[in-house]
Amino acid sequence: MHAYVEELAKHVGQEVTVKGWLYNRRSSGKIQFLQVRDGTGIVQCILTEDAADKSRFEACEHLPQESSLVVTGVCRADKRAPGGFELTAREVSIVQVAQNYPISLQSHGIGFLMEHRHLWLRSRKQVATLRIRATVIKAIRDFFDSRGFILADSPILTPAACEGTSTLFEVGYFDDKAYLSQSGQLYAEAAAMALGKVYCFGPTFRAERSKTRRHLTEFWMVEPEVAFADLDDVMRLAEEFISFIVSTTLGRCKEELKVLERDTVRLEKVTPPFPRISYDEAIKMLTESGHDIKWGGDFGAPEETAISDRYEKPVMVHRYPMACKAFYMKTDPQDERLALCVDVIAPEGVGEIIGGSQREDRLEVLEKRIAENNLSKESLEWYLDLRRFGSVPHGGFGLGLERTVAWICGTEHIRETIPFPRMLYRIYP
Amino acid sequence: MHAYVEELAKHVGQEVTVKGWLYNRRSSGKIQFLQVRDGTGIVQCILTEDAADKSRFEACEHLPQESSLVVTGVCRADKRAPGGFELTAREVSIVQVAQNYPISLQSHGIGFLMEHRHLWLRSRKQVATLRIRATVIKAIRDFFDSRGFILADSPILTPAACEGTSTLFEVGYFDDKAYLSQSGQLYAEAAAMALGKVYCFGPTFRAERSKTRRHLTEFWMVEPEVAFADLDDVMRLAEEFISFIVSTTLGRCKEELKVLERDTVRLEKVTPPFPRISYDEAIKMLTESGHDIKWGGDFGAPEETAISDRYEKPVMVHRYPMACKAFYMKTDPQDERLALCVDVIAPEGVGEIIGGSQREDRLEVLEKRIAENNLSKESLEWYLDLRRFGSVPHGGFGLGLERTVAWICGTEHIRETIPFPRMLYRIYP
Predict the structure, then answer these.
(1) Closest approach of chain A CAs to the CA of B10, in angstroms?
(2) With CB atoms counted within 10 Å of each terminal CB, which end of chain B scores lower, N or C?
(3) What is the pTM of this model?
């Protein structure tokens, strides 16, 4: 009977068949210890010379790493074994003898690993990271689905920019041109006017020429949008959302976080409410601590880290100057220089994981901003329609999936948080 | 207290506030009946001249469709009211008086509706369709998540074709070129070798110049991939999967299916097992019933409909000729002309909703096929690596989301099953 390694606890004392790949091996004369991974875990299979016929035993002795094999034997609990279970092998059948596997259990340079990403995925830490990624995604969807949000996917192929024209990927669209979506937000706004509370969650694209540990050209973003919500509603939603993701992942991914050697003490403190500071307060704090930043400038990685280091939890910085924010954000009625927006900055140097705002709901103000930002009014006429026909206060935010996974995993570079990262000069495999 | 229309059953006898848009209205002298939609449903609000001040009452009398408003009043159950509840309005506040709304409750031409898709979304049938879409997506993810599959997103930007080079969208990628993914499968295969059982679920792209009711240039596809699975495993997974989606949606979307006037009798019969016929049998059946098709040809819409009309449930047609299938499919060892593949054809003329197969796991056969199909071996070296390092029998399938939603909704054209459809000459809004 085929069993996955993660199910072995249910099969102690039974004979089961495990199908997988040789991860590691040691041998002591008449006994071989084969570590077999099957994607759900690693199990140690004990093969004695008596149990196997001689040629099979010898074949296993020289089996290269990542060869595929099927092992049948009785499952025993053993606390000393990695994973807690062992198989006393009665039969081993080799599916394929692998060629010499390029990735050893020793360390390799990052360029080499990226070039072999399709194989690197099999390594323990990569498996753990991808399992956490899947858990985070499920937590994200469960959060919104269970709160009455309707998933409304935004299109990828779009006629215009929504986050500045300098980072657009252009696509030949039959006899026309299109652009890869930088954000699903504008479409989510249309959907929110139809469905009340919505979210979109899909890949987004930024042709950024920057090579940093926080940037991918293709990354996933989840963007809730709520009709009749103001900035305070958006901030409350954001802190509840992030807290839910973190606590769900801590609960479900204990083993994976152990593999990654993640210290989870700080993550356990992530509960609402989060600290809130205004941009003005942040500037004051930064200049007092010697940062060279003037009122009106956006924060880079050093400023974000300096701010987040003051708090144990993610910190919500609100009301940035309009000048450094996107055209669709609503002006603060208390101070026309400011936008009703919020950035959530994660601890431990991860940086911004959420950008959100109340949206400009006045037609004439939005028209002015589109002109000021040199955006194509023609391709945004549909978006302006949302202000012509039943405009309402509304808002939402976007959370970058990979930065969030990197934060939870404690991963230095976000390239490890997506199966096949796309970066400047990196499109293969 | 703000309440969504779908929650009104919990608030009978209480005063609540509903926030939404004017959907329809009738008036009989001193009483106005305002139908207000908020994305979760429609509620009738009764406004009497006594309750409102005079100017407010008059303003409501001339309020255009889709104006936004906030109504506070006591909630009463009334079986005659659409939705089953009424609000006796104590206060109506108008958020915005809409301009003349272009989409009346009368019918419009499809070109006009598509041009106003951002507003058309607010119509009752569109809301119902999108809510069903969200339910189908949740069912898809729940199915795999609860069966130990790990979500592993495939990249959108890829260096090469995997479903033929004639339908590729090209993207300028810095100083290089890339292509929009036609299928996440090849990457899912790599992920399956790392994680055992995986699925990817994201947008895929085909630059098809065909204008049919079954084609979009951008559509979502879910693609499970299982290590150590053969064609029979793939077929069993497919029939369980489809049955789960259909029964889950029937259970959760009763109201929406009613709005769409969907006869659900045939959907209720969708349970495993599905009928299985070989391509050879299908050809025999088609030629006997007068279809002009020769052995070796692929099926088009007329053939698919003729086959599916013979069955109540979706039908699984397996083992097509290799010549009409993709390079990565495994040859049938019983008959080298055939592929170990399966198409699942939905009833009621919907056509193929699943294409799946066991994958070719032999390096040298795969190399030959890549050459025969004029694909770039260089850009598929990583894929060949999966056969060099621990190749195992494996398989999976792809299910087209929009066709599945169209089938369940009984929608004639799949353009209504995605919030913002992309088709030949259709990139706006």
Answers:
(1) 15
(2) N
(3) 0.97
